[in-house]
TrEMBL record:
Secretion signal, residue range per the UniProt entry: none
Protein source organism: Aquincola tertiaricarbonis
Cupin type-2 domain span: 53-103
Record-given protein name: Cupin domain-containing protein
Pfam families from the UniProt entry: Cupin_2
UniProt cross-references to InterPro entries, sorted A to Z: Cupin_2, RmlC-like_jellyroll, RmlC_Cupin_sf
Domain of life: Bacteria
Length: 142
């Protein structure tokens, strides 16, 4: 049976939540979609977009999460998942299995993705990488 006592209905319109720089990475902006509050921290849904050009990327890390989904809305990003380079483009969806070691090392200036993670207060642990990472490309001059 569905538990309706620990979660609430939520409806967030564009503009009701603002882009903010206070998130996991200072080179991204984040926009909360109200799901963490509605689920009492069981799940977070947020939009993530590029804020500045990639210099060093995210570094090798893994998340302490039970579920992690990335759906690319605009642009593209290049990840290393273990020793596998993966290009994620607009319309692509990635399910990051729990504990997968990865590195986001390059992305387009218009990159924007939807991220859904459970639990909402998931942890991030820096780790040693299994292989070298390609250098990011240069962004076009503004």
């Amino acid at each position: 049976m569905l538990d309706t006592t620990t979660t609430r209905f939520s409806h967030v319109k564009p503009g009701q939540t603002l882009w903010r720089g206070e998130g996991l990475r200072d080179f991204f902006l984040y926009r909360d979609l109200g799901v963490a509050d509605a689920t009492n921290g069981q799940v977070i849904a947020q939009l993530v977009k590029a804020n500045s050009a990639p210099e060093k990327g995210t570094g090798w890390h893994r998340h302490e999460a039970q579920f992690h989904l990335v759906y690319m809305l605009k642009g593209w990003a290049r990840f290393m998942y273990g020793d596998q380079e993966t290009l994620v483009e607009a319309g692509d969806m990635v399910h990051q299995r729990p504990g997968i070691v990865h590195f986001l090392f390059d992305y387009s200036p218009d990159m924007e993705y939807l991220e859904i993670v459970g639990p909402a207060d998931f942890g991030t642990v820096d780790v040693e990488g299994p292989c070298p990472v390609p250098a990011p490309g240069a962004w076009p001059a503004a």
